[in-house]
Amino acid sequence: MEKRSKRHHTPSPSDSDSAEETRAKDIKERDEFAKRLRKRDEEKVKKVSESSSKRSYEEAAKRLKLEAEDRDKILPKLRIQSRRKYLQKRKDDKVIELEDDIADDEYLFDESILTEREKREREHKKTLLQLAKEHEKARELENVQRYHMPQDLGKGEKGEYIEVDENEKLPNSEQRKWEQEQIKSAFFKFGAKDAKAQDEYELLLDEQIDFIQALQLEGNQEKKDEEKISEYQKARLTIEETKKSLPVFPFRDALIEAIRNYQILIVEGETGSGKTTQIPQYLHEAGFTDDGKKIGCTQPRRVAAMSVAARVAQEMNVKLGNEVGYSIRFEDCTSDRTVIKYMTDGTLHREFLSEPDLASYSVMIIDEAHERTLHTDILFGLVKDITRFRPDLKLLISSATLDAEKFSTFFDDAPIFRIPGRRFPVNIYYTKAPEADYIDACVVTVLQIHATQPLGDILVFLTGQEEIETCVEMLQERTKRIGKKLKELIILPVYANLPTDMQAKIFEPTPEGARKVVLATNIAETSLTIDNIIYVIDPGFAKQNNFNSKTGMESLMVVPISKASANQRAGRAGRVAAGKCFRLYTAWAYKHELEDNTVPEIQRINLGNAVLTLKALGINDLIHFDFLDPPPHETLVLALEQLYALGALNHHGELTKAGRRMAEFPTDPMLAKMLLASEKYKCSEEIVSIAAMLSVNSSVFYRPKDKIIHADTARKNFFHRHGDHLTIMNVYNQWADSDYSVQWCYENFIQYRSMKRARDVREQLVGLMERVEIDMVSSISDDTNIRKAITAGYFYHIAKFSKGGHYKTVKHNQTVMIHPNSALFEELPRWVIYHELVFTSKEFMRQVTEIESKWLLEVAPHYYKSKELEDSTNKKMPKTVGKSANNF
DNA sequence: AAGATTCCG
Fold this sequence. Notes:
This protein is of the alpha/beta class. Helices cover 45% and strands 14% of the residues. It has 33 helices and 23 strands. The strands form 3 sheets. It has an 8-stranded mixed sheet with strand order 1-2-11-18-15-12-14-13, sandwiched between helices. It has an 8-stranded mixed sheet with strand order 6-5-7-4-8-9-3-10, sandwiched between helices. Strands 19-20-21-23-22 form a 5-stranded mixed β-barrel. The longest helix has 39 residues, at 16-54. The radius of gyration is 29 Å and the shape is globular. It binds one DNA strand through residues 300-302, 328-330, 344-347, 349-350, 371, 373-375, 463-466, 495-497, 521-523, 525-527, 542-545, 556, 601, 609, 613, 665-667, 695, 697-699, 703, 761, 764, 819-821, 825, 840-842, 844.
């Protein structure tokens, strides 16, 4: 608190008596509020368990599958099966809904195919030109000897590149030595064994890249045949036999014994060992649930929690949602009978608010701990603390390799239990020299593999949608040029924003005699697994989000991946047979330029909500909270400072009643404050819609390349003259008026998926508003009230149009700009409030709304003095008459 | 005049 800027009020000593009184009163009210919450929770648990124990298996399974349908990452096989089943079964509402969904999907899908084709033809010439240019560029950069950032490309100036250190050039440099040590076989040349193939391939391809084979990623499965048979047999194996065939099975008894003997155990097991599905069952069988307590297991992803729970329910032959269940946001599929509960890490984190001692659990398993999500990182500290006063609680931290030692140290030297995985060896190849243009290098490598390597699908890791699109175009162009001399190459993109049906294509089996290339973002690193990948191409980059707590600005940058990430990528080649991974960087770069591990999320993002939740859990000293890797000090200070300014903490750093209410919302504290403020301004209906729209990450407007003009005019039809918050409210309300129609979204260039999500979020928020005792009321005719409520939450995010002709933030006096997508881009009002600050090509404010400065004194008198809000010039700002001011 | 990586509550 002491770091607050001096221009803000500080309570003066003379106030202190009455201040003490109000503080005591507030804390009393807070505790009473908390008590009411607890009571409501108990009632809710009763209700839920009554209703869900009645629920039939079919119903539960259907719910799961419906959710799965909605998700993008489920195997199409499953989808087809489930669709068929539905059609044969009862034709209840759910089925009709599902059919509609499918029909809608196909409708959208057909359209996108058409436009794709159109686009391809139209841009054919353009692509050729681009290709030529890029080749030129690559040649120019040929001499560059350094692992570099990809955004350097395109700047086109040699001078921007740093040449290698002189040392590295020396004949006996460390690099050389090291590489020689590592190299097992000589140069790996494509098709070297087959002279004929080699000749043919030289004719086809005018470029090639030399690779060097270095280390091998150890596997423990030797022959493919063996696996093939077992794969075939697996289908006919009984569940019991399948369970026995898992690598974890032989360790069953030893594992149970270890858990009996130690309170905390680190389980190190590779994927495919069966640990996630089997260990909870072993513990259940061994009597860990006899006392009426549960076994909990957290997962970083929703799909994982659902599908693993479904699998375990099947193995145990029980109804999903009864003895085995799962709990994720928007959906709690558990009952009072549940003894094995899978959930997302975020769900458990929130659950702490209602059950801070995990009293209903006998064992808690934190799975996939190596992924180091924000939530698991916080759970580490919380759960470690609990084991101190609950000796009966067992704790398992489950992680894939490498990090186990670190976890062990953190958890007071807990023993490490190792379980082997099931994986085939992967040979790793590095480039001999660094590649100047890794997109081009990817294309060349794909073709090299295609021309010379035995059949098997290829997975290429790129950083984003745009890169993937250009790479797809390049590959299409070059394969066309090569013609029929090579076998068919099926080129498929995958990234999160790709429509569901396009995503599903990557799961379709590759036709006989053809080869599939999947161009993916790091979505393919963990979130989805593609069968039959034999070759992986890894340029070594990914996009990463970073939060700068000094400026409060987020940025998305391309950075080199970590060694851990590189190995995860390589591992994707060894799932069905021995594979090969081609790294488009040198062995030297891998060894010396890549970090061991990716910086954990907790050190890279805004911690506002996390800090509030911890405060609500009664953890007052956050600076000394037991973090595995502590977040930057400034990030914590900023979060605390903001919470104080928002009134969530009092000047003693204690949680206030407002803070306790805010903690109920799974959102950024400022957004939570805005929701609370809607009570005073009688516009909770509108604010809840705005909040829901703000939390779907700006992917509401759809903007296909070939219909940019249509999309932009469609977007402008929603514009509100006072700004973006009211614009997105317009979108939501009109969509609701259309009865949540898919067709409406399509016509208005709105992403249906985002809207659906906004609707889910909105429903949840409405429930939470009731929980924090706020009535839902509407004030649609008065946008001033709505804007005041927004201001009450976001008074930290104010910018003022200055004399220099640009905006400056009030807090940091930092020059920022209105994002070109904003409704106010051409308006330039004097005072604006913004939702977020993002650094891309410039410092942009995203989601901007006009306000009046006097409101700041009304909503945040403790934070603003009238003096600093005075306009330095008395002249009115000349306003551009926006052609786009199209109000409702 | 910009441009979406990925999860999670």
